[in-house]
Amino acid sequence: MSLVAEEREFACFNGESAMEVDDTEEGEEDPFLAFVEYARSVLSPDDEDGGGDGGRDLDSEAEVSRPGWSWIAARILKTCIAYSSGVTAGILLSELSQAWSEQHRFGAPKKRPEIVNQLKKKHRRSKLPNTVTIDSVHEKNFITLSSVLEAVIVDIFVLPGTNIYMLTLGDFWSSNTIDLFMHRRYYDLVDPSNEILKKGREIFLTGCYLRTAREGSGYPRLLPTEYLVIILDDDQDDDAMLIAARFCSDSFSSVSLQQAQNGISYSLYARIESIGPLEAKGSFCNVQRKQVTLVDNEDKRLKFLLWGEQVLLANLLSVGSMIALDQPFITSSNDIAVETDSEICLEYGSATQLYLVPFVQHEEQVYISSSSSQIRHQGSRLSLTALTPTPRVSQVSLPCDSLGSIDFSSYPFRSFITDLTDKMTGFSLYGIVTDIHCERSATKVIFYLGIEDTSGSILAKLHFVSSWSLGRLSPGHSVFISGLSSNTSKKNRLEVSWFENQPGSSFINLSCLPALLNSSCLHKLSRLSDLSTEASCTYICRVRLDQVSQCHVNTDFAHSSCGRPAKLTPSGNLECSFCQCSCDSEVVRTLFLKIPVADETAKIFGWCSGPTAAEMLQISADEFFELPEDEQFMYPSSLENECFVVALVNSKRPGYGRGHCIDLEDNAVSWEITRAQNVNNAG
Asked: Are residue 466 and residue 320 in the same domain, yes or no?
């Protein structure tokens, strides 16, 4: 189906669905959610229900052809951010189709080296976060230093006339192969007496540079990298014997710093307990470092430290995996200013070689029970279909890590608050902000966000790297949050957390998206008479300024990162009461506005601030501030009957919490104008 045909189909689908859903007791379907479901039906045409498999299990092959709900929603919103002037259904479907095809290589020939096919039959690992495919390297003619290749050695050969070893590499997701110049620190592993690096051996590598076809051989090759990990399979006799013979004689308690300084080398075998950043002190403060906490079979712990460019190696490791370190460098923890219970630390030395038995994520069966009514796609229509009293149940397999947490990042359906349980990771929520406030802490930046959807509400703990970075956010705003995790506290309460710098984390405020007003596929126009004080959604309305003599305009300083007013403290400093921090160097002059708007059905007062207020007044805060007082008073009258398309949210709905900061004193106005766009009166 062409994109034009798909866009026409969506227009028909969207119009009919609105009418049909309006007639039900369920109320109106959110246009954004409706488009996500429609996009799922386009990307997964075999999934006729658009939300279930009719009681069938979703096997791993089926999952590959079905993008997760969270992935689709996030991709749509990221496209809206990229196309700030507005998107069409065709643009969104094109972006989704291209991104999904590139990620899963639908267009690539289904042929790969036979040795890779044989290994693929028993391949059960999940991809590492930074993994790229060999096909994508060829297609883009580029690879970043932090990218990871999970490769299989297809061939080993020596360049004619040299003693340079080359590895031909394939992977489980590509039809192409690529050659790698082997780093000389691994030459001894190709020796027939060792033959550890051989055809069929899996390796992880990172820190690669690509020599393009223009620079040499006529086709791309990877230049040597030190950052390579050899994959072992302890179910294979040869690998099990290698582990037992080489790595099980030494333990952490047998490691001696003095012996190491006398030239004694060690080979150690341990489980990776954690991977994280390491705070640098003193002369090391400008050096990037990471620490990998290792636990041996005697439950002894040592830190394996990575310095500078070596931190790339952390991209190849995963918590729960078993790591074998051959000839690690032994150093004193006092010499490198590391806080640890042990006197020694391990480092990646010039002779160190790493082997890994990756942790295989077990799959957890998650059961999905359908509700009493379910939205189904039928051709170009959306209808509500009553199901039989006996609920249908489907199940989907999701990866489970070494701590028992289930990864929901590829979950094919939308997650609701009522679905949340202990030990969930990578899930997303779409809902309405009900409360937001800062937790006072001297060392961490933490905010608590209340969010609700149609199933319930919950408080999420947001962790920021240095400061609030989400712009203006208030109760009533519609938000999409991905990369969430949940666990049960000591008080047996379910806690939801979000970390700003965690892979897969995103936070998007739909109510403030510039593209929303011009994207008819993601909203439908409402009349002011349709607004409900009990509503929890973002309305898009076409309005005119009416009786602007009743408007109230004020200018003041606001904290640039959150848009909230900055108040002068008794000490003379500016402080943001929302972020609870000093903000003298981070303030901008901004407008705060209360103004009446009307259409042919009703008239309301709305309030707004910042860029939205500037758009409605057609003047910047600095320009308005420079006007004489009498001109400031008269200025709004020039805007009488100006027409706007606006986004409206109910900011004072009953139940909203203490995080609701009113920007205008004694503000009794419920409706916040989150976005506005001036339009032609005749448009």
From this structure: no
- Look at residue 655 in the predicted model and tell me its pLDDT: 65
Q: How far apart are alpha carbons 577 and 564 in whole angstroms?
A: 8
Q: Are residues 428 and 566 in the same domain?
A: no
Using a 10 angstrom Cβ sphere, with 0-12 exposed, 13-18 middle and 19 or more buried, the burial of residue 110 is exposed
Please list, residue by residue across 33-59, b when 16 or more beta carbons sit within 10 angstroms of its beta carbon and e when fewer do: ebbbbbbbbbbbeebebbbbbeeeebe
Tell me the CA end-to-end span of the chain in Å, nearest whole number: 32
Residue 495 lies in a domain: yes
CATH code, domain carrying 214: 2.40.50.140
Q: Domain limits at 598?
A: 515-679
Sequence-distant (≥ 6) Cβ neighbours of residue 422 within 8 angstroms: 486, 487, 488, 494
- Angle, helix 69-82 to helix 89-104, in steps of 10 degrees: 120
Lowest mean pLDDT, pick from 285-299, 380-394, 564-578:
380-394
CA distance 197 to 187: 9
Query: For residue 5, what pLDDT is reported?
Result: 47
- Tally of structural domains, the chain: 5
Contact (CB, 8 A) for 157 and 190: no
Residues 664 and 525 in one domain: yes
Q: Residue 149: is its pLDDT beyond 60? A: yes
Q: Domain check: are 603 and 573 in the same one?
A: yes
What does pLDDT average to over the chain? Answer: 82
Q: With respect to residue 647, please indicate whether it lies within any of the assigned structural domains.
A: yes
pLDDT digits (tens, 9 = 90+) for 35-82: 999 998 888 765 544 444 444 444 444 444 578 899 999 999 999 999
Contact 592, 663 (CB under 8 A): yes
Q: Is residue 435 part of a domain?
A: yes
Same domain? For 521 and 609 the reply is yes
Of 180, 211, 231, which residue constitutes the final position of a domain?
231
Q: Are 527 and 669 members of one domain?
A: yes
| Residue 644 sits in the same domain as residue 524 | yes
314: amino acid identity, one letter: A
Q: What is the pLDDT of residue 497?
A: 95
Question: Rounded CA gap, 136 and 150, in Å?
Answer: 13
Q: Could you tell me the pTM of the whole model?
A: 0.67
In a domain, 112, yes or no: no
The three-state DSSP-derived secondary structure of 371-423 is CCEEEEEECCEEEEEECCCCCCEEEEEEEECCCCCEECCCCCCCCCHHHCCCC
Nearest CA-CA partner of 32 in 592, 556, 510: 510
Q: Which residue has the tokens 């072992």?
A: 232
DSSP string, 453-520: ETTEEEEEEEEESSS--S-S--TT-EEEEEEEEEEE-TTS-EEEEEETTSTT-EEEEGGG-GGGGG-G
